[in-house]
Amino acid sequence: MLRKLLGKVEDGRFCRAMAGLQAGWEFEVRSRKFAKTGVEIDGFVKYSGKKYSVHIRPGKAFCNCEDFMRRQVLCKHVAFVAMAELALYAAERSAHRQVQEVLPT
Ligand SMILES: [Zn+2]
C-alpha cells in the first residue's frame, strides 16, 4: 500500500523525499495501526526547524504543507513518511521482529 502510494508521487517530489532521507529528516510517529486494508499512520516530519503533520490512510494521504494544501498533490513529506515506514519494516523484517503499533494515549 505504501509502495503504491509512492508510485503516485511525482518524480521531483520523490527525489526530494529521498534527499530528505539522506539528510536525516526525522519522522516522529504518533500513531501506527495495521488495518486489513493497509497501515494507518499519523505523525510529524521534522527538519531544519520545520514541522509538518502527515496522515496516511489506505487510499489517501494528507499533509499540512503549502504544496499539499494549495496544489492537492502528494508532497515530499507524504513520500518521505512512506519511505521511512517501508525502510523501518524492511529493517525489522531482517531482524525478524514485528513493527509495533503505536497508539495515541
Ligand atoms: Zn507536505
From TrEMBL:
It comes from the Bacteria. InterPro entries: Znf_SWIM (IPR007527). PROSITE patterns: ZF_SWIM (PS50966). Residues 52-86 form the SWIM-type domain. Keywords: Metal-binding, Zinc, Zinc-finger. One of its GO terms (molecular function) is zinc ion binding. This is SWIM zinc finger domain-containing protein. It comes from Desulforamulus aquiferis.
